[in-house]
Structure formats: C-alpha cells, structure tokens
TrEMBL record:
Domain of life from the UniProt record: Eukaryota
InterPro entries: Cupin_8 (IPR041667), JmjC_dom (IPR003347)
Pfam families: Cupin_8 (PF13621)
GO molecular function: tRNA binding
PANTHER family: HYPOXIA-INDUCIBLE FACTOR 1 ALPHA INHIBITOR-RELATED, TRNA WYBUTOSINE-SYNTHESIZING PROTEIN 5
Record domain JmjC: where: 1-77
Alphabetical list of PROSITE patterns matching this protein: JMJC
Name of this protein: JmjC domain-containing protein
One of the protein's GO biological processes: wybutosine biosynthetic process
C-alpha cells in the first residue's frame, strides 16, 4: 500500500487479513561480494543479512517526472495517477456500502468486469 508493505512478518503472515499471501511464491538467493540483485518496481521483497554488508538501492524513474509523487524522490510510492485511481476506487466502494448486499454484490461484480475489460491486458503473465 503506497510505499510500505502491510505484511509485517513474512514468516508468519496474518492469513486472515492477507489470504492471497499463501499463494505467493518465495524465491531465495544468496549474494556474494560483488553480486547484484535486480528487483523490479513494486515487487515485494525481504532481505536478511547474515553478515555485515552494504546495500545500495537505485531507483529508475523512466516515466515523465509528473507521473511520480513529487515528495517521493526514490519512486517507492504509487505513481501519481495510480494513487488517484485507487482513491477513486475507495470512494466508489464506499458508495457501494449504501446499497443492500445483493445490489452491492451485483454492482461490485459489474465494476470488476469493467476493470477487467478496460484496464487489464490479455497477455498478462500469471
């Protein structure tokens, strides 16, 4: 969420709060002196140092500067447009709460279908 993960303990996550975490695939690697690990933007990751060391983060901001949160020099936060989209979605979901459950379910499913049709690529890797 934003620039921080809400999963605080990856070894013992709250699966009631984060049920999808059980489906996550863990990858483990051990780096030696001089090794580099590239982690794509927005990928959840956790690091454990077995010995002392130095970590250097480099954040590539390849979009126009206006796409990023001006208060986020590292590019960790959601893109500015993405943050606005999520805020709009939260407002829409709050409005749905005004409906009885069966109507909330109906319109919620319509929202999901519209998002799938309009926003998702058909060539997504799963």
């Amino acid at each position: 969420s934003g620039d921080k993960s809400q999963v605080l303990d990856i070894d013992n996550p709250d699966l009631n709060k984060f049920p999808e975490f059980a489906k996550a695939t863990a990858y483990e690697c051990f780096l030696e002196a001089g090794d580099i690990l590239f982690i794509p933007a927005f990928w959840f990751h956790n690091v454990i140092n077995e010995e002392g060391g130095v970590a250097v983060n480099a954040f590539w901001q390849h979009l126009d500067a206006s796409a990023y949160d001006a208060k986020d020099p590292y590019g960790n936060k959601d893109l500015a447009v993405g943050a606005r989209v999520l805020q709009s979605l939260d407002r829409a979901l709050k409005i749905l709460d005004e409906l009885p459950q069966q109507y909330r379910d109906f319109y919620g499913r319509r929202m999901i279908l519209r998002i799938q049709e309009k926003a998702l690529s058909t060539d997504q890797v799963t």
